[in-house]
Every structure is written in C-alpha cells, then in structure tokens.
Amino acid sequence: MAEERTGKRRLAPEDIYEIALVSDAQISPDGQRVAFVRTVLDRERNDYRSSIWLVDVAGGEPVRFTTADARDSFPRWSPRGDRLAFLSNRSGKDQVWLISLGGGEAQQLTRFPEPVTHFAWSPDGTTLAVVTKAETAEPPEKEPEPETDVVRITRIRYRSDGTPGFLDEKRSHIWCVPVDGGRPWQVTSGDFDESWPAWSPSGHEIAFVSNRTPDREYNTVSEIWAVRASGGEPRPVATGDAAYFFKPVWSPDGTVLAFTGHREPFAGSSRNHQLWAVAAGGGEPASLTSALDRSVEDEVLTDTAASSKPGPIWAPDGRWIYTQVSDQGNVHLYRIPAGGGEPQLVVGGRRRVVDFSLSADGSLIACTVSEPLNPCDVIVCSADGSGERRLTRVNEEFFATVELSEPEEVWLPSASEDRRPIHAWIMKPIGFREGVRYPLVLEIHGGPHAMYGNVYFHEFQLLAAQGYAVLYTNPRGSQGYGQQFLSCTRGAWGEADMPDLMGAVDAVIERGYIDPSRLGVTGGSYGGFMTNWVIGHTDRFKAAVTQRCVSNLASFYGTSDIGFHFGEHEIGGTPWEQPELYRRLSPLTYAPQMKTPLLILHSEQDYRCPIEQAEQLYVWLKKLGRTVEFVRFPDESHGLSRSGKPKHRVERLQHILRWFAEYL
Ligand SMILES: CSCC[C@H](NC=O)C(=O)N[C@@H](CO)C(=O)O
C-alpha cells in the first residue's frame, strides 16, 4: 500500500548496510576544508571500515582522502594545516599515521606495542602527545608466552564492558612523539590511568585527566593534572575527592583551564555535567553553567551513529568556550562567556550536534549533525551560528528509496499524582490509514540518565515499517530536563518512572488509532530493567522484548563492572545495608506476576549488565511455565545494538520483529 502510494519500499533490518555514518567533522585551521570520518558496515567481512574524507567549505563533492582497507579515525589537522594525523588499525592495532595534504601515501608515525587511544598536536606542530598503555615505544622482538592460563584477580575493577577478557595491569600514559623523527619519550608514569592530553598554548605543559587519589581503586574520582611536556612530576590543577572532571582545554593566553564535570563523583551520570574554569596554576574551580540546569555533554541515545570525542573548545579571542548542551531531546552547540554570563545558543534546532570544531581564527564552525530522518551530515556555519550550510548529503540517495515515519514530538501527562507532562515522540506506522487501529510498541531508554531525542533510530523506523505505532518517552530520570528530574529516580527505580510511561501509553491510546489489546514493550539496559519491571506490574502488554537487561540488583552489584559504585549510588546503599530495598526494586521479585510473553536478548560478553541477569530471569519464568525465549549473542558486549558485529546487529533486529509478529 505504502509502496503503491509513494513508490518507496519499506525499511528492512539489513538496511544498516546501506547507511553510511559520518562523524568527527574537523575544519582546517584556514577554514577552507573539513576532514571527517565516513564509516560503513562491511557485509562480506562482517566488520566496519572507515576512511577520512575531505569536503570544501565553499561546496562541492566530498572526496575520499585515505584509501586503505582499514579503520581510519580521529583526523586532526596540524597547526599549519599542511597535514593530518589520524588513528588507523592498518598495522593491526590503532596507531598514529600522518598524511600530507600535498599528496602522497600516509606514513605510520607510532609503533607502540599497545593501541593509541587519543592524541593531540603541540601548538608548534613538532610533537604529538599520545595516550597508550604501552610501556615501550617499539614492540618487543617477541611477545613473552604467558606461563599459565589461570587468572589471578586482586583488584575490584577487573573487567570493563567492551574489553574482552580481564583488565590487565598496564596503565594508560602520555607519551610525546616527535613528528619529524626522533625518539618518543614517556611523560607520565605510575599506577594511574591518564587520558585527554591538552597542550598549553606555550607548549611547555600538558594538562590531562587522571585519578591520583589514594583510594582510586574504589572511588570514581576524575581529576585535572598538568605536567611539563618534557616529563617530571605532575602538578594538581583541579583535584581531590570531590573532583569528577573531564576534557580540559586551555584559554588562548594560557592562564585558565576549562573542563567539564561535577563535584559528586559517586553520583556519576545522575548529575548534570557543568563547564568549569580554574586558574591554570590551580585553585578553586568555578562553574560557568550552574544557572543552565543542563548537562554540557551529549546524552542522546541512538543505534545509528559513529563515535567521536568532542570536548569544549576555547575561541581564539578568549571570550567564549564552545560546548554541547543536552536539552529536551536535542543536543545543541552553545558558547559560554569565559568570564561568566548568559550562555548563547549557536547551533540549535530539532537535532543532535554530534561533534564540532573551529577554524584557527574562530570565524567558522563545522559540525556533524543528526536529525530524526537523517542520521548524519556535516554542516558549516559562522561563529555565532549564522549562515549555516550543509556540506554533505551522505545518505540522501538511499533514503529517497525507503519510506520513513516522521516522529511527532509531544508532551503527554504522567499517570503519577502530579500529572507532570512527559516529553515523548509518536511514530505512526508506515501506510497509516484513518479509522484503522494499530498495535503500539513502547520503547524505554536506558541509563536511566540518558535521553531519547531528535535523531534517527533504525530500530524504531523498522517497527514503524512493520506496521506498529512506536512511542518513546523521556520519563523521570532522563537527561535534558534539569537536575531535579534527572536524579529523582534514586532509590525508586521503576516506582518513580513507570507512571510516566503508562500515562504516555494511555494518552496515545486516547488518540483513537491504537488497539489497546495489542501493546508491546521493549528497551535495553536500564530500559531492559524497566521492561521487566513493567511486565511484573501490569498485564496490559501482550508481548515484550527485554534487551541487555537487569533483573536482580543484588547480583548486579557484584557482577557488573559498575555495580559497586553506580548500583550503590542509584539504589541508595549496598545490598548488605539495604537488603529489603534491593529485593523490592529487583524485577525478579515480581517474576511470579509476569505473564507477558517475553523474549530475552543478551550478549555473552556483556560486563555492564552481565548475562547472569538474563539467565536468572529466563529460568525463573521457564519454571513458572511462562512463554519465554532466550537469545544469546556470542562475543558481543553491552554495545551490541550500536557497535556489534553487523550480522549480529541484523539478527538482533530480526528477533525483535519476529517476536512482535508472533505475539503482538
Ligand atoms: C541498569 S544498569 C546499567 C545501565 C546502563 N547505564 C550505564 O552504563 C545503561 O542503561 N546503558 C544504556 C545507556 O547507555 C544502554 O542503552 O546501554
């Protein structure tokens, strides 16, 4: 029907292979060109490939600049703009490569035995500050054979989601690597993990992020330190037990350091990240965004994006600091007066500013943006946001062939006593006709401190393509609506937010085109927790899919890589201090009440919400005689839906569609 009307076909799970992802838009110092990363899913190799592309700011077709059959990422212009440094796995592990804008092949700069995870150009363009866990600059002649395969664990942090196996004893440190020959030297050392190097404008010092507190094994502190580029003892800049600081950036005159974060490390993601400034010599940091009541980070969730690492950027005239701000489902670019004052919106609209960069004179900005019907493109505008132009149309051709459902942005009353309006999006099914009543799928986001928003979401579009209406909301606990809304789910998981979800479902049913006997529910991570919670507290849903879920908070405390801090803060105590609270808030407690046919999707290497969470739920429901199925994804982590092997990503989507087709 839809096809007849529009001449377009319906979206399919495998269409993830048709969508190219662009990210990390880096404008050249002279503002003439933008380098960006273009990532595609390689069906044959069941892997990802990415390359660096260039596009003229004046317009024209983007051109592919790096051509290796590899994963190239993180392009960064030399200060003179005559070459690009980037990360590439061409030699096996990610290392720094250099390519001249004048032509010629890329040259490998670093040969560390461990991957390089981040780097920064020195202001004079002679040296790179590089982050790696390597202990030597060159690989050893021969890797020593391990004496045993038995693993001895002595630290509380011994696994980290996304790192297969167990964490090793190596630490991430900063090295300096001369760009035109010469031996690299190690700048920081010791039992600390360093990240995010930022050169002082004079090139004498490097600021960085580390946790150097004595209790660092157990706490979640993140401090700002600085060290002479030649090496030596680092000095504290913004440190101590109340530091939860990231992404340092120097003022152009070198007197001030700005960074993001907050002052309650244990509260983690449940606090807005603010922008702070401190005298570069150290002192008391002052917040520049305390009146904003929003986070200066990108908090939006999607299943269709490549990663980049944007941080605040100080304008060359020293007046402004540019930063992302998460606001009601959008991620906008703001500039914050460095001396204090009203933040100014620079790039707004119903969209997500994924990353951004400034030309050397600060007159031009390049950004990657994402919108509900377009996953990603590169735009350019002036320093105040005026004169915006789109430089790429990466997926225009593909999206001209498929029909998408345009999400309607609405505010719907919560079913809680306060009837608070909850921000939500409704997608009508493809082929929608007046007078017909459709099944509805409620999507619940994770975090809980993240947000859905104005971005393309393949899973939602697929459900709409299969004839479902889709509802997604930002209930209590979500980012983007202020501190009070963000943290009010503490000690009240499920209890505080379920009424918001159910109020939204009721409000959509009232619109008249939903069949109330055909409601489905799904979500991942905390959204999986909530899916379990919801079906344990109501029988209104006819089918459910729980993904990377949590079912038992007491075992989550001991098995998740973040259980002993995130879990403890979010629930409000340890399992031995609050056994009744852990029992009350665990979905498993309500398993006997769960009647909804449930599909459990889980990755076997999920160390965030370990697969034992799914196993417990599966066996309990099976023993209770319920309709339940368990699909396990080998060699995948918590990030399966976003960065898993392409074939598994397609299979995951197919399982979701299959379950709803059968039970909804
Ligand atoms: C419910 S326990 C851990 C939840 C996890 N939070 C932090 O890592 C989570 O909900 N993650 C979300 C958002 O990133 C996800 O979609 O995986």
From TrEMBL:
Organism: Thermalbibacter longus
InterPro entries: 6-blade_b-propeller_TolB-like, AB_hydrolase_fold, Pept_S9_AS, Peptidase_S9_cat, WD40
Domain Peptidase S9 prolyl oligopeptidase catalytic, chain residue ranges per copy: 456-664
Family assignment from sequence similarity: Belongs to the peptidase S9C family.
Key words, A-Z: Acetylation, Hydrolase, Protease, Serine protease
Molecular-function GO term, any one: serine-type endopeptidase activity
Listed name of the protein: Acyl-peptide hydrolase
Protein's GO biological process: proteolysis
Alphabetized Pfam families for the sequence: PD40, Peptidase_S9
